[in-house]
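Protocol step 4 of 5: obtain the predicted structure for the target chain.
Materials: sequence only (see below). No template structures provided, no constraints applied. The aim of this step is simply to have a reference model before the mutagenesis design in step 5. Sequence pasted as it appears in the construct record:
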Amino acid sequence: MESFIFALFNGVLYGMLLFMLASGLTLIFSMMGVLNFAHASFFMLGAYFAYSISTYVGFWPALIVAPLIVGVVGALVERYGLRPVHSYGHVAELLFTFGIAYVIEEIVKMIWGQVPVPYDIPESLNFTLFAWAGLDYSAYRVFMLLVSVGIFVALFALLTKTRIGLIIRAAVSDPTHVATLGHDVPTIFMWTFGFGCALAGVAGVLGGNVLGTEPAMALQLGPIVFVVIVVGGLGSLGGALIAALLIGIIQTMAIFYDFGINAALLAVGIEIDAAGMFRDFARITTAQASPVIPYLLLVLMLIFRPRGMFGTRDV
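Step 4 output (structure tokens):
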């Protein structure tokens, strides 16, 4: 039971990190209808900016400044790149953000190099917060979990309880009437996009020193973020939270309880001939299959429920 709780905690932590990254993408899509393929690249920028800033002024200022810089970069990308492309349709938007992702990756390589940078957990949080049943729980990981929960609560309150949230949602459904009320709709969209990128920057600041800060980090996490928002439902913040937790827990459990498919089949009375055609298949373990699990879930969701668990529109 102790090992199960420890694995569950790690799964929840990984899931909440995925949610932090997916929350900005969910916000951008629900408000603007834009699927930003470069979203994970802004996550990477957050980690690299935090690394550079923390070497001079420490982690805590970097936690504030790095996401702000990423948000401004995102707003500029929307204003001078995505906005002119928007009139050509969603395909042009997807291609544009796809290109931006590679531009950011190459810029990162030119500035910081092609090897991982030593972005470490801050000393002020690099200790065991508590131990239970012989298992240590890191203060930094608990801090990450608390920040993730805070982001969800703050976003939900912003979009449903504040005047700003009402204006943003109204600008999506009826931009003409919102403009007649004196609101600058293009500027609203620009800062919404920037805010979504800033959320990715927060995830980069907090996750970069745990996952490793290197040029391939965007490519590693980018696809799984789209799995989260599709499974949860495009534009659904609550769906993104549940999908991220589900994927995080399933993947962590698959790695932690590493057993072979053959053993699982034997447990239910199915025996595979060692010399048969399924021999290689039976050798696969859950840890080996864990990277495939989210994408299998994505395929099944697209087949049986294209709107996702809580989405209001099809993919």
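Step 4 remarks: The mean pLDDT is 84. Residues 261 and 307 are 31 Å apart (CA to CA).
Proceed to step 5.
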